[in-house]
């Protein structure tokens, strides 16, 4: 009975893969500039942690043998980066499950979701990439086609490989769960054509199609 329930639950979960490659030349420029700034900073941070732990070890243990404590530097660095490793999202009637490479799965119940909306390239760069820790936590090299998922504890960005499937799945699964508390507001809106990502504006749906406000 337990195995049957587990299989049934896994079949109901919808996997949303991220879009990773750049979409155009602008994405290439933005992505490489971001990587050229971010990766050296991350490397310097890890080296600083190695030096710090090595120095603390030599001071605490009063000898060169304490330098072996420097090996904790990379481990502390990985712990710091454990949330910046989103592989995919999984959706079911319970909520949004954020699957990560270096950290346990984070589950956000539908009752805590406040809004899910597409964002422009500028919003993604300014609010998702140019901050620490980054709010866009996948390995995506595109600044287009991202959605901002806002919940009670904060927000993050995610670029679904199939935006239409992403929208349909959320609309379907949200209606299958118990009703929301009165103080939870979920908003679906279509952004203006000027701010909309190019990939979305080319195949814009009919007026109001696919966008709801509950």
Explain what the structure shows.
It is built from 6 helices and 7 strands, in the order H-E-H-H-E-E-E-E-H-E-E-H-H. It has helices at 2-12, 25-60, 72-80, 121-129, 163-176, 198-201; strands spanning 14-16, 86-92, 95-100, 106-109, 113-118, 147-151, 154-158. The strands form 2 sheets. A 4-stranded antiparallel beta sheet has the order 1-2-3-4, with helices on both faces. A 3-stranded antiparallel beta sheet has the order 5-6-7, with no helix packed on it. 19% of the residues are buried. The model is unreliable at 1-10, 178-182 and 188-214 (pLDDT under 50).
With strands numbered from the N-terminus, the spatial order across the biggest sheet is 1-2-3-4
Output the structural class.
alpha+beta
Q: Number of helical segments?
A: 6
Distance between the termini: 37 Å
- Major β-sheet annotation: 4 strands, antiparallel
- What is the N-to-C succession of helices and strands? HEHHEEEEHEEHH
Question: What distinguishing features does this structure have?
Answer:
6 helices, 214 residues, disordered C terminus, alpha+beta, disordered N terminus, 7 strands
Structure, briefly:
This protein is of the alpha+beta class and 214 residues long. The chain is 39% helix and 17% strand.
What's the helix and strand layout?
Elements: H1 2-12, E1 14-16, H2 25-60, H3 72-80, E2 86-92, E3 95-100, E4 106-109, E5 113-118, H4 121-129, E6 147-151, E7 154-158, H5 163-176, H6 198-201
Antiparallel strand pairs: 1-2, 2-3, 3-4, 5-6, 6-7
Helix pairs in contact: 2-3
């Amino acid at each position: 009975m337990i195995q049957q329930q587990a299989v049934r639950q896994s079949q109901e979960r919808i996997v949303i893969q991220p879009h990773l490659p750049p979409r155009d030349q602008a994405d290439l420029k933005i992505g490489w500039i971001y990587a050229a700034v971010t990766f050296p900073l991350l490397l310097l941070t890890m080296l600083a942690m190695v030096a710090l732990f090595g120095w603390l070890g030599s001071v605490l243990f009063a000898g060169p043998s304490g330098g072996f404590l420097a090996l904790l530097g990379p481990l502390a660095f990985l712990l710091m980066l454990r949330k910046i490793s989103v592989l995919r999202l999984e959706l079911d009637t319970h909520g949004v499950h954020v699957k990560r490479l270096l950290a346990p799965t984070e589950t956000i119940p539908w009752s805590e979701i406040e809004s899910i909306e597409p964002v422009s390239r500028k919003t993604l760069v300014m609010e998702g990439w140019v901050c620490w820790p980054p709010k866009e936590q996948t390995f995506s090299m595109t600044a287009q086609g991202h959605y901002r998922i806002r919940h009670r504890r904060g927000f993050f960005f995610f670029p679904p490989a199939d935006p239409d499937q992403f929208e349909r799945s959320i609309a379907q699964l949200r209606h299958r769960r118990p009703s929301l508390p009165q103080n939870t507001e979920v908003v679906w809106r279509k952004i203006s054509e000027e701010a909309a990502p190019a990939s979305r504006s080319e195949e814009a749906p009919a007026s109001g199609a696919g966008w709801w406000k509950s």
